[in-house]
Request: fold
Amino acid sequence: MRRANRTGRQGRYGYGQGWRQAGIRFFRAALWALCLTLAAGWVQAGPAAGSEQCPSGPAASFTPSSPGTAGTFLLFSDVHLNPFAAPALVPALVAAPVEGWRDILAKGPAGFSPYGQDTNNALFQSFLDAMVAASPKPDFILFPGDLLCHHFWALYPKLSGDASQAGLEAFIQKTVEYFFSEVSRRFPGVPVYVALGNNDSTEGDYRIQPASPYLAATAQTLARMLPTEASRSDFLSTYSHYGCYAVTLPEAGGVRLVVVNDIFWSVKYPDAGLGEPVAAFLERELTASRARGEKVWLMTHIPLGDDTFKSAHKSSGQGTPRFEPLLVESQNNTFARLVMEFAPTITAAFAGHVHRDDFRSFSDAAGKPVGGMRLAPSISPVTGNNPGFQVYAYDREGPAILDETTYSLNLAAPAGGWRQEYVYSATYGRGLRGPADWQATYRDLGTCPPRRLAYGTNYDLGSAHVDDVTETTFPTYWRAMAAPTKSVWEVWSAPVELVR
Reply:
């Protein structure tokens, strides 16, 4: 997960820039929300929806081929569940079997985690209930990683009094089992497909090792979330080595889901050489799927390209844009090369890590759109965002994703409950069926101010606590959307003149 200090924040996970600044941002967010409401009406119903400035795309971009091919799935990311949020309960959690955790954790504070902290049990339970209300019977669930909270490895010995590695590993295993037992309690029989985040290890943040004890401890728990004996066999054959696997999703028209543990590629990982087997796994799986005529969906934790918040923060403060990589350059380039080479095979890609609602749009050297990647918002509000999850509509024929609806919880006024933040097709005038749709949305952000305003609001799910995307910083975000590598980023030019 990206942990960034923000100018004026009180410490790494502080509460922001003081009440005065919070009030200013709340007022600004309210104005943006009003404008967004007007903009949404403009896109959906007003005469400007088909205007030259804000064109609408074809309905086919968000419509299934036929009613019989329509499906839905859920996606959530970066939960960072914190079993230490109520320190007095930790000894009881250590002593109890995982079956007793729900009752123990229910004794903790009823309030949700505030901005600047990871997900406590109250927020965890609330988000699961909200997902059931939004989509009670999805075909499956995707989780691009970061189950464990930050500083798990320091908090456990401090609050339990147990400094042993065995005790830490046992507590991690129970945390994972509790997490997925609660997911399964809400969605019995629904398959859950999981990628590993940088906090998902027994060794520490960005420190997972090949054949890690974390992989051994979680393999059977994750395998039980899969729908068939064949998928469980495929998963177990590779997961225990590097946390990568590939399985067929029968509920999604037989698409092959390839899950890559790209923590080994992170610029924060201490041994870049360990990432080579992960790249070999990805290329091998894509080659085999292409030979079999299968379509592939990719899921990783860390996205390709620029650490946009970091580069936007530096460019706004220094005036000089600079590429801030998330992945080691050579491995990021390999990843990008495979995405381009196998573009006809890959029909969707998903990542988390950034704790923000964003996307990447990929084009070849000639500028032809070839694919894209959706970046999921987080449940954890540790970086000042509001918590959020997504419900996707997809077409089993293809298979192709079509549309998504994002739900959020305004932590500044949590009594209002979870709400529908936005519907992608209504907000951006088109869906997600193909690369051309992604590229059109990317271009429209430059020429359609209401959609750009919506993007800025949706990015942190309407949080009044942060103000990431502004008119000043937007060009940095716009650049990153279309630049999966440093070399592309360096030669990027705006596709259209920015309309203010």
The chain has a mean pLDDT of 90. DSSP finds 16 helices and twelve strands in the chain. The longest strand covers residues 400-409. Residues 85 and 120 are 6 Å apart (CA to CA).
